[in-house]
Description:
single chain, 175 residues, mainly alpha, 8 helices, 66% helix
Amino acid sequence: MCDIRLFRRAWLDFRTARNLLAIPENDEAYINNVAYHLQQAVEKTLKAFLECVGVTVPNTHDIDKLVRMSKNNGSSVVVTQWIEDKVDMLTRWETDTRYDIDYCVERNKAVEGLEKIKEFLDVNGLKEELREELKTEEQKKRLKTFFPKNFEPASDFEWNCFYQIYRKKMEKAAS
Length: 175
């Protein structure tokens, strides 16, 4: 079952990472925490898109496995080249930042990760500003046909998420 809450949690993890990185603390624990939350944003986004195509998502933090599952199961997630290239590093950010006391993510890698994961989220419509596809009332009206009667998303972010959830059905209905 596709659930907007996974998209929200992915976005919250991204915002947490962004906020932590802004703290002027020169401590490896802060940077490791940034990396952990960035990995979680990617993981939860991939899992949310898999759920949207009816895939029961396994209990895994392996980004490479989730990317392969996304490709093999018709998920509409757009996996950016940076994510493809960094699947092993991202997976390590989930486990090693929490369990290996000697593991340290370099600040420049966390800064790059923040930028590149923002691009990944943006291209997949997980952003606070309304995506281009929904800037006309006609598109919103088409999307609302999939909602329960009198339901209205509470924010542009929610509009974006519901678009992700129903995009394929909208495309099918239009053809």
